[in-house]
Amino acid sequence: MELLVTAAVAGIFSGLIYAMVGVGHSMLFRSTGLLNLAHGELVVVGALVGFTMTQVHGVPLVLGGIGAAVVAGSLSVLIKIGIVDRMPRGTALQIAVCTFGVALLMNAAMRALWGTDIYSLPSFPGPPDTFHVGYDRAVLPGQAIWVLAAAVVVFGGVYLLEQKTDFGRMLRAVGVDAPVARTFGIPARRVAILAFALVGATAGIAGFVMSPVLFMTVSGAVTLGLKGLVAAILGGFDRRSGALVGGLVLGLAEQTVVAYLGAGWQDTVVFVLLLVILLVRPAGILPGRVAAAR
Amino acid sequence: MRAVRLLSPFVATAVILWLSFLAVVDGLGRDFLATDMAAAGCIGVAVVGLVLLVGAAQQFNLGQGAFFGLGAYVAAVSVNELDVSPLIAVALSVLVASMLAWPIGRVLNRLSDLYFAVATLALTIIATSVIHQLSDYTGGEDGMSAPFFQVGEVVLSEPRERFWLTWGVALVSALLVTSYLRSRRGRALRAVGGDEHAARALGINPVALKTQAFVMSSALAGLGGALLAFTTGFIHPGAFGVGASIQLVVVVVLGAALVVRSLLMAFLIALLPVLFESLQQHLELIYGGVLVLVLINLTRAAVPGESTVRERVAGWATAGTRPARRRVQT
User: Fold this and answer.
1) First to last CA, chain A
2) To bridge B111 with a disulfide, which of A50, A107, B3, B115 should be the other Cys (CB 3.0-4.6 Å)?
3) pLDDT tens-digit profile of B250-303?
4) Quick one: which H or E segment has residue B151?
């Protein structure tokens, strides 16, 4: 029982992290139909920029977060303008492979700028260092509160934006059919650029908030981005809440296996789960709509 | 005459390889590179398999590094634990790789091309983490040693002999893949790669063909991996996994997914970082740059008003005399 509760606590926490990474993947896919395999790198860039600003240059925490969002958002826009727009006839696969190349380039650049060390911010002020949940080993770091707050803000923000604002409606229209949206006077290209900027900004913020609890290294970026993608696919790629549900399920599954079999099986579980879900329910585990696997 | 036309590129490749081996090892006196050049042949075998998928079936496989590693570890573990001869170990590797690839290929082929790429990338990560987990047999991060290749009593202790072995196998598999691609089934596979729906309408079964291609490609990756274990005498997880998958894909992309060209690229890509050590630090930069530039260039080919690098070069060369011709690739 203690093992299960421990796993559940740890699982919900890492699930929130995967959800924060995955929300960018699913938002980008819904508004542009594209897959950015450099997303994990954007998250790590956010963490590293936040670290350098707050720890090296002594900038206040809030400004560090804004800086992380701005840098990651601008890089995302660069990917859109420099890569995606230069492949007007490119299929989603070709663009995804190209962003994989971008991921390698970003890795090299980050390695040149920050080296291969582990960068970890101190916990944000506010909550106590740790929470105990019933059992001795069921411990949640205090930073979990901040991660949760960021998740609420991001998922709530995406909901409000897409559902309640004109820009959100344009975003959805472009996602459904860009040429038709254009005939209705929607500036499709500008909307897509803004979508990339928003997705990059969420990645930067996610990296910044997760930095105290997740040891951010350059080499972990590819796996982190992929795990976020698994979360998004698991919950359903074209749903707003998909990444959240998928992330939590993924985190719980992963930590349960870790609790019973050992930490080494972490990556294996996640990606076996991806293979299974792609084959059994490519539209995600949530009931309802069954979209074809694109 | 047909046989000459079929064989001449392979003979030419063999001559080029042998001359560069002589130039580097005997000419420059860099004996320590001989093993690296032999190991490049193993990468060549895996590359030939990948050409089948990326070039003919138009499937982007980021999982070739997984089967490459599988082959290497099955070979090394079976020699160390089961005490079989290297020749049988190689056969075992190929067998295990194909038997695993059959069900995996069968189910992965239900996915669209985008998810196929993501799923095969997942395969690579799974393979790496399983190698780490089975550290009792594989030595985990520290890697494990394997004997040099031997047939009967003859041990290939000379790097020169292993060079001929690995590149011989690479050239023979390249020849086999080429003739497969020209056969009835190979043409059908290319038709599936071109337009799956049209191929289906012609009575071709795309799933069966693509699964076959996946099995053949993975079997070749297993063969290459097994040879690698007996060529270098030491394997570690860093040589496989995501890095290897990326390297194999970059080689095939640079080789325009053509068999002989990709083989030569495998030789170059494997050798340049060893020849010029400063390049070793910047491999990621080079691979990333290659992927980005080639793919952008690739998608511009068919866009009105845009031109590829080759067309622009052709344009400068023939300045206004005639429009640049676009070669149709087979």
Assistant:
1) 41
2) B115
3) 999 888 888 899 999 999 888 887 777 777 778 888 889 998 998 888 777 655
4) strand B150-151
| Phi and psi angles of residue A186, each rounded to the nearest 5 degrees, phi first | -85, 125
Handedness of CA B170, B175, B180, B186 (dihedral sign): positive
Q: Give this complex's ipTM.
A: 0.86
Which of A121-135, A167-181, A210-224, B52-66 comes out lowest in average pLDDT? A121-135
Q: Would the CB atoms of A108 and B290 count as touching at under 8 Å?
A: no
Question: Of B93, B52, B60, nearest to B75 (Cα)?
Answer: B93
Query: Chain B interface, mutation test: which of A39, A89, A116, most B Cβ atoms within 10 Å?
Result: A89
Identity of residue B259: V
Q: Which of helix, strand or coil describes residue B150?
A: strand
Interface contact B132-A274, CB threshold 8 A: no
Nearest of B292, B53, B165 to residue A102 by alpha carbon: B292
Give the gap in angstroms from C-alpha A231 to the nearest C-alpha of chain B: 13
pLDDT in tens, A18-55: 999 999 999 999 888 889 999 999 999 999 999 999 88
Distance (Å, rounded) from C-alpha A206 to C-alpha A210?
Answer: 6
| Cα separation values, A76 from A39, A99, B10, B107, B284, Å | 9, 11, 45, 34, 20
User: What is the number of other CB atoms lying within 10 angstroms of the CB of residue B302?
Assistant: 10
Residues 6+ apart with CB under 8 A from A84: A32, A34, A90, A95, A196
Neighbours of B160 (CB within 10 A): 16
Burial degree of B259 (CB within 10 A; 0-12, 13-18, 19+): buried
* Sign of the four-CA dihedral B96, B99, B102, B108: negative
A108 at B interface, C-beta within 8 A: yes
User: CA–CA separation, A151 vs A159, rounded Å?
Assistant: 12
d(CA B43, CA B223): 10
- Beta pairing partners, A197: none
Alpha-carbon gap, residue B21 to B264, rounded angstroms: 13
d(CA B127, CA B129): 6
Residue of A nearest to B300 (CA): A87
Cα(A172)–Cα(A162) distance, integer angstroms: 7
Structure token pair of residue A229: 């993608």
Q: Is residue B36 within 8 Å of B271, Cβ to Cβ?
A: yes
Instruction: Copy the structure tokens of residue A35.
Output: 């897959």
Q: Does B195 touch chain A (CB under 8 A)?
A: no
Task: Supply B84's token pair.
Answer: 């079989």
Dist CA A161 CA A291 (whole Å): 24
How far apart CA B57 and CA B50 sit, in angstroms, is 10
- Which residues does B100 contact at the CB level (< 8 Å), separation at least 6? B67, B70, B218
